[in-house]
């Protein structure tokens, strides 16, 4: 089969690889659609600590079961499925404490990073993911839309980690694909959302998807504009969905005293940020980080897409065949695309 394999930063090669054969409890899937996300773009540009070359990239996908291993009862050849790129072990220290996103075994069993991914004609789903985090999906929804289940699950998990109240004011920094997913989830809770971004075109999309206000900003004027948009004392919640030192620090400066900050965008490894300790302590600001997702959030993401409650079609701005995957990464790097679908 054909696969896009990472060898080094900016060195992604289309190569012939063995078509995966499922062993006991495993499932082989013919990939119909696999979406390029921001994490994959960063991995392509600068590498990833979990990827050992050569590694087939890709982890947001939908496909058709081509073969099942011995003992698999829930799926059969021909089923359309989506699978998470991970599943918690349930037995490690973090899992026993209810923090399954921090499962100690996820890094060594992560599709597209430590296990071969979905930028290929076929991908193999390991037993632990087949058992806990693989689902049959409706054929009435396109494969590329269903492939958005994984990032939407991360957005759902993020909002589970903060206190949301109808009518509160939120400033959301970043209107990429995940920012626009967060926007829709917030609007389902009757929350006032101001989107802040550099790009006018992306802010126009945010308006169409329900943003109450939009702010075209720079690093220099972000804080002043966002604080004003948040009301007399500032916003109740600020969500950083960019992953930059400057916007992390700005998010804390924007939020009102007694408010919340949700750091959703991941910064580069080793990034250090600084905050006003006085504001955090005396202002009782609640700061929360969010990473990855749980099986429960993955199931909720599938339901939200299948029901149409979260619209992902407007986020899928470009499509390329697997043979032109480099063009897809170029579109993402130049910020010409919100999300690129790779088809096989």
CATH superfamily of the largest domain: Medium-chain alcohol dehydrogenases, catalytic domain
Q: Roughly what percent helix?
A: 25-40%
Structural class: alpha/beta
Number of domain units: 2
- Please tally the β strands and state the result: 16
Query: Rounded to an integer, what's the Rg over CA atoms?
Result: 20 Å
CATH class of the largest domain: Alpha Beta
- The backbone outline, from C-alpha atoms, is globular
Tell me the CATH architecture of the largest domain: Alpha-Beta Complex
Helical run tally: 12
How many strands, which pairing sense, and closed or not: the largest β-sheet? 7 strands, mixed
The name CATH uses for the topology of the largest domain is Quinone Oxidoreductase, Chain A, domain 1
Which residues form runs of ≥5 with pLDDT under 50?
none
Estimate the strand proportion: 15-25%
Mean pLDDT across the residues is: 97
């Amino acid at each position: 089969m054909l696969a896009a394999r990472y060898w080094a930063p900016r060195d992604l090669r289309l190569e012939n690889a063995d078509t995966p054969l499922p062993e006991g409890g495993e499932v082989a899937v013919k990939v119909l659609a696999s979406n390029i996300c921001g994490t994959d773009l960063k991995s392509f540009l600068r590498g990833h600590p979990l990827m050992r070359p050569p590694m087939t990239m890709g982890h947001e996908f939908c496909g058709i079961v081509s073969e099942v291993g011995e003992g698999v009862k829930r799926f059969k050849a021909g089923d359309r499925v989506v699978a998470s790129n991970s599943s918690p072990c349930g037995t490690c220290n973090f899992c026993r404490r209810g923090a399954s996103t921090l499962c100690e075994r996820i890094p060594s069993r992560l599709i597209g990073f430590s296990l071969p991914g979905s930028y290929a004609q076929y991908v193999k789903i390991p037993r632990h993911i087949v058992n806990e985090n693989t689902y049959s999906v409706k054929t009435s929804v396109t494969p590329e839309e269903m492939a958005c289940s994984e990032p939407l699950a991360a957005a759902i998990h993020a909002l589970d980690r903060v206190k949301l109240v109808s009518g509160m004011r939120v400033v959301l920094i970043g209107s990429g694909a995940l920012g626009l997913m967060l926007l829709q989830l917030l609007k389902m809770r009757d929350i006032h959302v101001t989107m802040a971004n550099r790009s006018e075109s992306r802010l126009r999309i945010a308006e169409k998807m329900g943003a109450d206000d939009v702010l075209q900003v720079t690093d220099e004027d972000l804080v002043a504009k966002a604080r004003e948009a948040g009301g007399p004392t500032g916003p109740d919640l600020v969500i950083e969905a960019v992953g930059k030192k400057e916007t992390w620090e700005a998010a804390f400066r924007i939020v009102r005293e007694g408010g919340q900050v949700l750091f959703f965008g991941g910064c580069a490894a080793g990034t250090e940020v600084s905050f006003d300790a006085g504001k955090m302590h005396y202002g009782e600001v609640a700061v929360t980080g969010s990473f990855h997702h749980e099986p429960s959030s993955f199931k909720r993401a599938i339901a939200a897409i299948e029901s149409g409650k979260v619209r992902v079609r407007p986020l899928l701005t470009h499509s390329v065949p697997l043979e032109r995957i480099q063009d897809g990464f170029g579109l993402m790097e130049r910020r010409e695309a919100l999300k690129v679908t790779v088809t096989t």
